[in-house]
Each structure stands twice: as C-alpha cells, then as structure tokens.
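Audit log entry. Action: structure prediction of a protein-small molecule complex. Ligand: zinc ion. The ligand was supplied as SMILES and no pocket hint was given, so placement is left entirely to the predictor. Protonation state taken as written. Sequence taken verbatim from the request; no trimming, no tag removal. Recorded inputs:
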Amino acid sequence: MEAARRATGQVTGQSEIPGSLTIISLGYRARCTRDGCADLGRLILRYADAGGRPMSNSAFCHAHARVRLARERAAGVKVYDDRLTSKGPF
Ligand SMILES: [Zn+2]
C-alpha cells in the first residue's frame, strides 16, 4: 500500500538539537554526570552537530546512558556505537 516514507532530520525551531552522537567506552575513572548518581561512568556520549563537529562529551553509567540513548533515538538523533570498532583496552 503506502510506502512508509519518513522524513528524517526534522526542523524544529527549538534549542540546538544534536545531529548525532557516538557511544565511546570510557577509559578512565569518572563519575556519571547525571545529577544524584553516584555510579562510575562507563560510557561517553559524544554529541556532534549536524555538520559532524563535536559539541560535547558526557560520561554516564550504563543505566543512565541507556535512558539517554533511548530518548535521543526517539528524538531522531543518529546514534553511532564506536565500541564495536575499537576493541582493546584503550
Ligand atoms: Zn548514572
């Protein structure tokens, strides 16, 4: 019947929406940046703008990273998982 054609990259007039984010393994000790969370950060979510320029890095524990990722995906942010390509202790 109807092709499910979905427009990605919605334009909203709101505050800056990151174009993409990359999941990176956290290689040093840092706390989850979520308020009230005392867990160690495990992952870095690196945000980039629509042009691919890095905007910010945030460290999260697994639980909060998962919550954040689900929300960003729902918002249309492209999510790349860099953990798959960079094996090893680095
Ligand atoms: Zn946390």
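Audit: result stored. The beta strands are 20-25, 43-48, 54-60, 78-81. The chain has one domain: 20-84.
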